[in-house]
What we know:
Elements: H1 6-12, E1 18-29, E2 33-37, E3 45-48, H2 56-61, E4 67-76, E5 84-95, H3 111-116, H4 125-147, E6 151-152, E7 158-159, E8 171-172, E9 199-201, H5 206-216, E10 218-226, E11 239-248, H6 252-273, H7 275-290, H8 302-311, E12 315-318, H9 319-327, H10 330-333, H11 350-361, E13 365-371, E14 387-395, E15 399-406, H12 411-420, H13 429-436, E16 442-448, H14 449-457
Parallel strand pairs: 3-5, 6-10, 12-13
Antiparallel strand pairs: 1-2, 1-4, 2-3, 4-5, 7-9, 8-9, 10-11, 11-16, 13-14, 14-15, 15-16
Helix pairs in contact: 4-6, 4-7, 4-14, 6-8
Amino acid sequence: MKRIRIKELLKSEPIGEKVTVKGWVRTFRNNQFVALNDGSTLDNIQLVLQLGDFEEELIKKVTTGAAVSAVGTVVKSMGKGQSVEITVEQIEVIGESDPEKYPLQPKKHSMEFLRENAHLRFRTNTFGAVFRIRHAAAMGIHRFFDERGFLYLHTPILTASDAEGAGEMFRVTTLSAQYPPLTEENEVDFSKDFFGKEAHLTVSGQLEAELGALALSDVYTFGPTFRAEHSHTTRHLAEFWMIEPEMAFADLNDNMDLAEEMLKYLIAYLLEHCSKDLEFLDQRLHQEEKNKPMDQRSPMGLIEKLQFCLQNDFERVTYTEAINILRNSKPNKKKKFQFVIEDWGADLQSEHERYLVEKHFKKPVILYNYPKDIKAFYMRVNEDEKTVAAMDILFPGIGEIIGGSQREERLAVLQSRMEEMDIPQDEMFWYLDIRKFGSCPHAGFGLGFERFVQFVTAMGNIRDVIPFPRTPGTITF
């Protein structure tokens, strides 16, 4: 008999029908009641084994973590917490699990313990919920762009260019680490390497996406990116996924419109498709908050926070206006900010971003027109020559969630900016070429996928929203 997924069974409730279910044992009580989960839903299905119907040797193998297959009849449940259960006629242990050695016993485990056992953490309620939501968010992103006529462009993971100009890149080479070939100047001779030049893992697909946009109009990338940044915070990873749309014939306002529309679409999509998992994570957050001092508690629950972002138009504020608000704020005047705002030109920190969203405007905020000196070379210089047409979207609890800009389409201005910032123009000839042949205003942004999943799941650490986190000193699995 073909297996039915537990999610489908609980949705259809085929009472009186014989079914086959397969999954992993969560608990086995009184040698009679098995809580079975197959990962398709947060909910378990209860298997009821009639006492005396099964051999003792078989019953001993039905332990927490074991993979089992069961055939039985779906009946109305008399117990609390489930509407239906299965009266089992046959049960088979497909994969045994030694209860003395299985790490995930039916008790509360710390996040650190689960990170150390990341190969098994998918089996917990929390991580099952997180990764079902991650999947739904990815599906929602593709659906959003497809409905609007964007083309999905696969940009390279191996690259010779540094899109951000920050230099924090992982080098990719086939040369010997011990005895690399050297030039006459005693430097590594990358002309002997696989690509004939120095290569890295990409930090962004943006520059290549611009090439696609200036022929296909609207494109987006969704792929892995890498930063060799020695950061140990709860918001940074060395390997993460980015969504980067690029639009031809678009300015900064079009960019802000698309970004706000996308975030609202995704939140609404998840509230519709992942309600049970979100409710579970909302309860989890509520329990966690109880153990924190009052001043460190989140002002909103998870679902309340998602509704907050959905129901409010995002406040659009210039960087200059934001600096004035922050400079005159109580936390700044009383020096309660870790980074006190003194002058125009300061790079805003998470504490400043959260103050603007949570305390001042009490709604999501889009900051735009940043000082050009703290932004990347490709951002369009405004008429004041001091600022660029850049924008960041700030959300409650997390700060910046999206960064983007109108791109510099004027060849001479772009060349001047590259010169100022020591970006080698000869290596970027292809990027400059699209400013020579049919250039036009264009814009785009980047959404860090894990940052978004962290926001919609209320997980405190970004390492808990990616299956196998890559951070300084950690490359297990």
